[in-house]
Design a protein that fits this description.
Layout (H helix, E strand, L loop, with lengths): L18 H10 L6 E10 L2 E11 L4 E5 L6 H8 L7 E6 L2 E3 L12 E4 L11 H6 L10 H6 L2 H20 L15 H13 L5 E5 L7 H18 L2 E5 L3 H7 L2 E6 L2 E6 L1 H5 L2 H8 L9 H4 L1
Parallel strand pairs: 3-8, 3-9, 6-7, 7-8
Antiparallel strand pairs: 1-2, 1-4, 4-5, 9-10
C-alpha cells in the first residue's frame, strides 16, 4: 500500500529496462527457475502425447512452445497447470517439486492461466470478471466472507483496487461496467488476460491468446504481453500458432513434434534449425526454406 492509499502491484526489486537479457542473467547467477519440467512424459492408453520433455523458464522471460497440430503443446500446458498427471517426470514451481501440480493451489504457487476458448462470465461486468481472478488468492474463510468480517472485507477491497489497476494497464477502464459478453472478441481476450494478471502471478501460462484475433488485435495483445513481462517481472509461457508473432515476441522458443522436444533456443537459431523446418514444411532443406515460409 502506498502512502497515498492506493494499492500498488508488487514489482521485483531488480526490474530494469533490459528485459531481453534478464533471464540470461538469472541463469548465470544460479537463480532457480520459476518453472522447471524434468523428464515429462504423458500417455493416454497407447498414445504417447509427450516424450521426456525438459525445460526451464526464468523470471522476466517469454518462452514460446510451438509445433504442428498434435505436437503436444496443449498437453504440456495441462501438465504444468495440474489438469493432467504426467506418466513420468516432475514439475517444479516456486521451488517445490510435484508429480502432479495441485490445481487448487495454483494461485498460491504463483501461477495463472488463460485458455484457448474464452472462459469469461459473460453476464458479469468486466470489473467483476477481473475481480474473480483474485478469489483463489484470498485467505478469508467462507464464514468470514459471508459475514463481511475484517479480513474478508480487506481482501475484497484489495481485489477491486488491483482490478482497477489491471483495467488501466489493459485500457479497459471505459468498459468496466459493461457485461463482458457484449464486448468485441479482442477486448474479451484482454479481460481474460486482466483476470489472470490480477492474481499477481510469477508464472503466466497463455494458451493461444491470439487465436481468432484480427491483425490489429494481435498487435495490441503482443504489446500487452510484453508489457506484463517488463512491468511486473512475470515469466510467461506462450502457446501460439502464429509463427511470425512468436519469433517477434519470445526470448526463447521450444519446438515439439509428436510429443518430443526437437529444439530449444533463441528465435533466430530455431528459425534456421533443419529439424524445425522439416517439422513445419515436410522438407529438410534449410538452404532453400526458412521458417518465414512456414509462417
Amino acid at each position: 500500500m502506498s502512502m497515498s492509499g492506493t494499492l500498488e502491484l508488487a514489482l521485483p526489486a531488480h526490474v530494469d529496462a533490459d528485459a531481453g537479457t534478464s533471464a540470461q542473467r538469472s541463469v548465470q547467477a544460479g537463480v532457480a527457475p520459476v518453472l522447471q519440467l524434468e523428464g515429462i512424459s504423458l500417455s493416454f492408453g497407447g498414445v504417447q502425447a509427450l516424450r521426456h520433455v525438459d525445460l526451464a523458464l526464468h523470471e522476466r522471460e517469454i518462452l514460446a512452445v510451438i509445433g504442428p497440430n498434435g505436437a503436444g503443446k496443449s498437453s504440456l500446458v495441462n501438465v504444468m497447470s495440474g489438469l493432467y498427471r504426467p506418466t513420468q517426470g516432475t514439475v517444479s514451481l516456486a521451488g517445490k517439486r510435484f508429480r502432479q501440480v495441485p490445481t487448487a493451489r495454483l494461485a498460491r504457487l504463483g501461477v495463472a492461466r488463460t485458455f484457448q476458448n474464452l472462459a469469461l462470465f459473460k453476464g458479469l461486468s468486466v470489473r467483476d470478471n477481473i475481480v474473480l481472478g483474485r478469489v483463489d488468492a484470498m485467505r478469508a474463510s467462507f464464514v468470514e466472507q459471508i459475514a463481511g468480517l475484517g479480513r474478508a472485507r480487506r481482501e475484497r477491497n484489495e481485489a477491486r483496487a488491483l482490478a482497477a489497476q489491471m483495467m488501466d494497464f489493459l485500457d479497459l477502464r471505459a468498459h468496466a461496467e459493461r457485461p463482458a459478453g457484449g464486448l468485441p472478441y479482442g477486448l474479451q481476450k484482454r479481460v481474460e488476460l486482466a483476470r489472470a494478471l490480477v492474481a499477481q502471478p510469477r508464472l503466466l501460462l497463455l494458451d493461444e491468446p491470439m487465436a481468432g484475433m484480427t491483425v490489429t488485435e494481435k498487435s495490441e495483445m503482443t504489446h500487452f504481453v510484453r508489457a506484463a513481462r517488463d512491468q511486473f517481472g512475470t515469466a510467461i509461457l506462450l502457446i501460439e500458432h502464429d509463427i511470425g508473432l512468436v519469433f517477434g515476441l519470445s526470448d526463447r522458443v521450444v519446438v515439439l513434434q509428436h510429443g518430443s522436444q526437437i529444439a530449444d533456443g533463441a528465435p533466430a537459431d530455431v528459425r534456421q534449425d533443419a529439424a524445425v523446418i522439416e517439422a513445419y514444411l515436410g522438407v529438410a532443406q534449410p538452404g532453400h526454406h526458412t521458417m518465414q515460409e512456414a509462417a
